[in-house]
Design goal:
The protein is α+β, with helices and mostly antiparallel strands. The protein is built from 5 helices and 2 strands; from the N terminus they run αααααββ. The longest helix is centred in the middle third of the chain and has 11 residues. The two termini are 27 Å apart.
Length: 83
C-alpha cells in the first residue's frame, strides 16, 4: 500500500535518495516517514510538502504530527495540542 507521502514523492519524480538529500535527512528516515513508522514535526511536514509541490494537509494527517500534552483536564484525561 502506498502512503500519500510516497505517492507525492513519486509524482514529483523524485527517488527516495534524491528527496532525502534535498531534505538533508537519511533515506532510511524518509522511508520511516513514508511508512508511518515515524512521526514528523509540522516544520518537517511543511518542508516535505514544499519539496513535493503539494500542501502539507494533502499528504499528512494532523494526527501524524508531533503532539504535546498541554494539561490534564480530569483524572485520567489528558488534553493534547497538535499544530
Amino acid at each position: 500500500m502506498n502512503s500519500l507521502v510516497r505517492s507525492a514523492r513519486l509524482a514529483a519524480g523524485l527517488s527516495m535518495e534524491e528527496a532525502a538529500r534535498y531534505l538533508g535527512i537519511p533515506s532510511g528516515y524518509l522511508s520511516e516517514i513514508e511508512s508511518g513508522k515515524r512521526r514528523v514535526s509540522p516544520d518537517r511536514a511543511e518542508q516535505i510538502a514544499e519539496l513535493y509541490g503539494v500542501s502539507r494537509e494533502a499528504i499528512f494527517l494532523p494526527c501524524r504530527y508531533v503532539c504535546r500534552m498541554t494539561h490534564q483536564t480530569k483524572v485520567g484525561e489528558v488534553k493534547i495540542e497538535c499544530p
